[in-house]
Every structure is written in structure tokens, then in C-alpha cells.
Amino acid sequence: MALHALLPDPRFRVTALLTTVTEGFERISMHGVRRELLRLQADSIGLPLSEVRIPPQCPNTVYESRMAEACLRLRDRGIGHIAFGDIFLRDLRAYREKNLSQLEMHATFPLWGIETRQLAARFIADGFRAVAVCIDPKKLDPSFAGRQLDASFFEDLPADVDPCGENGEFHTFVFDGPIFRSPVRVRAGQVVVRDSFVFCDLIPIVEGEQPCSPK
Questions:
Q1: In angstroms, how far is the first alpha carbon of the chain from the final one?
Q2: What is the DSSP letter of 8?
Q3: pLDDT tens digits, one per residue of 15-28
Q4: Contacting residues for 98 by C-beta, under 8 A, at least 6 apart
Q5: How far apart, in whole angstroms, are the C-alpha atoms of residue 84 and residue 10?
Q6: Which tens digits make up the pLDDT trace of 162-209?
Q7: Helix (H) or strand (E) segment spanning residue 44
Q8: Which of 1, 67, 153, 166 could bridge 162 with an S-S bond, Cβ 3.0-4.6 Å?
Q9: Is 45 helix (H, G, I), strand (E, B) or coil?
Q10: Sequence spans of domains, the chain
Q11: Cα Rg of the chain (Å, integer)
């Protein structure tokens, strides 16, 4: 949704997508989504992908060093801003702004300050489709792993869980929406517990298979 808000903004021209991938697992860090699906997602959106590879249980110093290297490569291409989807966590915003300012770059936050219930409703109205792929069981029941973010998903969330998972309650994989040329076809696989989080594996659909059937 941050990208969707940014694309029509005349102040910016979006040139790449940036994310971290955990070495060895070959999955998006924290989300646990297969690298293959990350690439299919970027291809459908139509933007080149810049991957920052980090080790498992990555120390913050290593994370910051590798992110800085990736950002400097982007800066060398004339890119001066990095956009983030943060909504209201001020300490995280300040952290990102500080790290980028040290590289003489700037952070922008297209969704900043939008009320999250409103943002969740807009997510559905705009035609985005996503699956909850990572759940923090200390904050949300593990049964939400693998569910699609439809109206019933948001209705079933406990009152103390942010509708956009802004406090880390859940993470998602978006597989369709107005910024996609075509849906990324996936099906739900095994649900596992790893490092105190609950993950639902998403598997790319091969020709002839049925698409994801949300719980």
C-alpha cells in the first residue's frame, strides 16, 4: 500500500524494490516467504528487485552494515530516497531517518499517520489480497496463520491487535492488487513454529494446480 500511494506522487519516481533475504533459508527475512515468490511478486509489479542478504539471527551491526552497502549502491545510481511502510512507530521512523541521513539519503513514509482501521478498510476496497504468513503467538492466535486478509480476518482480530500488524502481531505476503499486472499464484503449505513465531509456508502454484484457498 505504501508503493500504491507513492506511485502517483509527482515528487518521486520509483525505480526499485528493496528487501532483506535470509541466507541459507533463501526466504524473506521475518516473513519466511520463499525467495521465488519474492521475485514473482516484483515481476508482477514491474520493478527491479534489490536484495540485501543477511545471516540467520542477524546481529544489528551486520544488518546495518549490509543495508548501508545496499543503499550506497542505490545512491550511486542517483537514488536519494528510500520509502517505508511504517505507520505510527516513531522510534522506528527515527531509526530509519538517522541511518539514511548518515548516508546523505532521505526516508519517506507514504502511509504515515493514517488510522490503521481506515487503512485496513482501504486495503480491501482497493482490491489488495494478502495472506498472513507469520504470526507472533504472544500477540495473536496461531490459527490466523494462512488466513487471507479479508473482511472476516479483520473482524476476528482481538481488540488489542493492530489491524495492520504495526506492532509486529502478524506479517503478510501480498499476492494481488491494483499495482500487480497479474496475481502471484500461491497455495498454503505447512504451518510450522520456528524461533517462537508461527509461519505458514506459501508454495508457488504450477500450471494446473488450484490457487490459494484461505482458511
A1: 23
A2: T
A3: 999 999 999 999 99
A4: none
A5: 17
A6: 999 999 999 999 999 999 999 999 999 999 999 999 999 999 997 665
A7: helix 35-45
A8: 166
A9: helix
A10: 2-204
A11: 17
For CA atoms 44, 45, 47, 53, give the dihedral sign: negative
Place of cell 508503493: 3
Enter the C-alpha cell of residue 3.
508503493
70-100 pLDDT, tens digit per residue, is 999 999 999 999 999 999 999 999 999 999 9
Indicate the pairing of strand 27-28 with strand 17-22: antiparallel
C-alpha cell of residue 138: 504472544
Write down how long the chain is: 215
Ordered DSSP codes for the chain:
-HHHHHTT-TT-----EEEEEETTTTEETTT--BHHHHHHHHHHHT--EEEEEE-TT--HHHHHHHHHHHHHHHHHTT--EEE----S-HHHHHHHHHHHHTTT-EEE-TTTT--HHHHHHHHHHTT-EEEEEEE-TTTS-GGGTT-B-SHHHHHHS-TTS-TT-TTSSEEEEEEESTT-SS---EEEEEEEEETTEEEEEEEEPPTT-------
146 closest CA partner among 134, 155, 154: 134
Residue 173, all three cell numbers: 505476503
**Which set of grid coordinates corresponds to residue 50?**
534489490
> Would you say 67 and 35 are in contact if contact means Cβ atoms under 8 Å apart?
no
Domain 2-204 sits in CATH at: 3.40.50.620
Neighbours of 115 (CB within 10 A): 12
CA distances 83 to 17, 139, 150, 156, Å, are 9, 27, 26, 30
